[in-house]
């Protein structure tokens, strides 16, 4: 556990920004930020804030798994101490009083890290890389929809009204004017992101009505996962201020494409700093191929972390409106029909883009899961299948088609549990099964429409 070496840094930062209030944040399994709000003086002087470790066994609806399912988990609701990470401290740019939002790591009072925490799961995977002298570099791309505010969950979502007073009614991919329909919102989003040092690269209009994508600059996976978490929070807040919702649901509207969280991945030699995915002659290296081999072998088993909700699998179903959402783990050069796309690049930028994750996934867990699969491939020197040339759609869906089978596959994959942590995987499975049960108790409008008078 840290010895409060972060204290002088926090003091300086608080002083510089005149901070009066602190939001202590921890991402739960879903990616919901849990924590405590405290006066700055108390935070700096007092003991560290505490939370029960049950926040990591809570479903998205606030429920808990059945006792039978949590037998692997210690149900004592032990206290955790929250330790701030000074590299993850941000202003709350929309707050009236100067407020800090700080991402925290969780430790038991005995000093051990809490293995259930998504941020810890990613750190664990990064430590494995570090022990081999490898530094993974990632660049996330996150899609989202702006939608009209909607307070009745029985009604489908609708695109919002832009500056012209109209809703989008046709495909507007890459249209600058269609982004500018929401100019005041995006101006404010950029101001907030600047104030928080979130390193956005580009903003584009995607295929769906009111669907956009932001790309982040590449860098350290932990820092980027923090940034994605903070970005989601910031955008949701900005949209609300402009009378809309921003949603990261994987498939918010039946007739529109889903939203993804693509992750570009490359690997540096930690000492020399060069990209080990390229050989000296600039060609893709054996490590690169083994990384892809690992992704092909293990990604189907880690789908619950990349596609964590029933809704996530609606995005991955091939329909007229599924756009370029992947349905397999084939790889290919400059090919958007495969799950693993290798963009044409210079040797230093040799990378593979994992296109499987939905925007609804927890970024810590997406990065941990994806890097874990690549790591297993490199360790086992796995060979990938030959690259796919042309369209990969015709091969059918090669991924689990629902959260239930996906959870069974994760349950059966011991190598992944060894890397991500047995206790984490068991808890995650229990929480997701409880969510699935809760979902199943809801009778849908489809059932009322088609079964009511027919069966
Ligand atoms: N930018 C794209 O390639 C579109 C991705 C697509 N929206 C998906 O859900 O995967």
TrEMBL record:
Gene3D superfamilies, alphabetized: Glutamine synthetase, N-terminal domain, Glutamine synthetase/guanido kinase, catalytic domain
Segments forming domain GS beta-grasp: 20-111
Pfam family name, one: Gln-synt_C
Keyword Transcription regulation annotated: no
Keyword ATP-binding appears in the UniProt entry: yes
Highest taxon of source: Bacteria
Domain GS catalytic: from-to ranges: 118-455
Alphabetized UniProt keyword annotations: ATP-binding, Ligase, Nucleotide-binding
SUPFAM superfamilies named among the record's database cross-references: Glutamine synthetase, N-terminal domain, Glutamine synthetase/guanido kinase
Annotated InterPro entries: Gln_synt_N, Gln_synt_N_sf, Gln_synth/guanido_kin_cat_dom, Gln_synth_cat_dom
EC class of the enzyme, as a word: ligase
Entry's EC annotation: 6.3.1.-
GO molecular function: ligase activity
Family (UniProt): Belongs to the glutamine synthetase family.
Protein name: Glutamine synthetase family protein
Organism: Halomonas pelophila
